[in-house]
From TrEMBL:
Keywords: Membrane, Transmembrane, Transmembrane helix. It comes from Sphingomonas adhaesiva. The chain crosses the membrane at residues 6-26, 125-143. This is DUF3592 domain-containing protein.
Length: 145
């Protein structure tokens, strides 16, 4: 009985992820955006990366949050018109948050009807969810009850 519940959960995860991917591919368009600035200074980024590396060295089995969400100001061009937006972007603390440094590029998904509406959440997260659902379904085969 528990096995069928796990299968149902995995199926719901796959259905939601497929719907998200379909929505992005049908209703949104990808565009490369240039990061103009972040909500953290260079000193804050360096301190955050250094403390993360030090805590990993001192306590390698501890629960360390490697990923951090920062707000970035981006500029992107749609139909020869430059747009600017503030978006949330997830960065890797272990790499000195280089993905959110000014003058780097990130991928955005914008609404063609309203190019000012953007998101940084692409189909990659949904594909990862599908992979996790597949692993969950495979693990559920061994559940004896």
């Amino acid at each position: 009985m528990v096995q069928y519940g796990i299968y149902a959960l995995a199926a719901a995860m796959v259905a939601g992820s497929v719907a998200r991917i379909a929505f992005l591919l049908i209703c949104r368009r990808p565009v490369a955006a240039r990061v103009c600035g972040t909500d953290e200074s260079v000193l804050e980024r360096a301190h955050d990366a250094a403390t993360y590396r030090w805590s990993r060295y001192r306590d390698p089995l501890g629960d360390h949050d490697r990923w951090k969400s920062v707000r970035v100001r981006v500029a992107y061009v749609v139909d020869a018109v430059e747009h600017r937006a503030d978006v949330r972007h997830t960065v890797d603390r272990a790499r000195d948050m280089g993905a959110a440094l000014p003058d780097t590029h990130i991928m955005l998904w914008y609404d063609p009807a309203a190019p000012d509406r953007v998101t940084t959440s692409g189909p990659g997260a949904a594909m990862l969810t599908i992979a996790c659902a597949a692993l969950l379904a495979i693990a559920a085969r061994g559940v004896p009850f």
